[in-house]
Amino acid sequence: MLDDDVTFMPDDALVIAFRSLSVPLREVLFWTEIEELSAEEVGELLDLAPSTVSSLVGQARQGLREAYFALIEDVVIDLRDGSN
């Protein structure tokens, strides 16, 4: 999964995990977590109901968490096996 010539850092996993999310999930996560907008404000920006924004944020957080830990787990296994 990872190029052997590249040093992999946990921050890289976060970026890769974020990019693995769909565009709508990345958008709501960005606006709520980085820009600290409310669900109502994000809803206005993206033409979504606040309840939809809240639901998408939950999905985005879960997806980011799962993707991040899957990547980290792969790296830990590779390091233990001496593959990386």
Give a quick set of tags describing it.
single chain; 84 residues; mainly alpha; Arc Repressor Mutant, subunit A; 4 helices; 75% helix; elongated
Molecular structure report:
By secondary structure, the chain is mainly α. The protein has one domain: Arc Repressor Mutant, subunit A (Orthogonal Bundle), CATH 1.10.10.10. It has helices at residues 10-20, 23-34, 39-46, 50-81. It starts with 9 loop residues before the first helix and ends with a helix.
Name the average pLDDT. Answer: 86
End-to-end Cα distance = 11 Å
* CATH domain fold name: Arc Repressor Mutant, subunit A
Instruction: Tell me the helix content.
Output: over 70%
| Oligomeric state of shown chains | single chain
Shape: elongated
Q: So how many helices?
A: 4
Count the E strands.
0
Q: Strand fraction band?
A: under 5%
Q: How is the biggest beta sheet arranged? A: none
Give the number of domains.
1
Structural class: mainly alpha
Short overview:
This protein is mainly α. It is 75% helix and 0% strand. The model has no long low-confidence stretch (mean pLDDT 86).
How are the secondary structure elements laid out?
Blueprint: H1 10-20, H2 23-34, H3 39-46, H4 50-81
Helix pairs in contact: 1-4, 2-4, 3-4
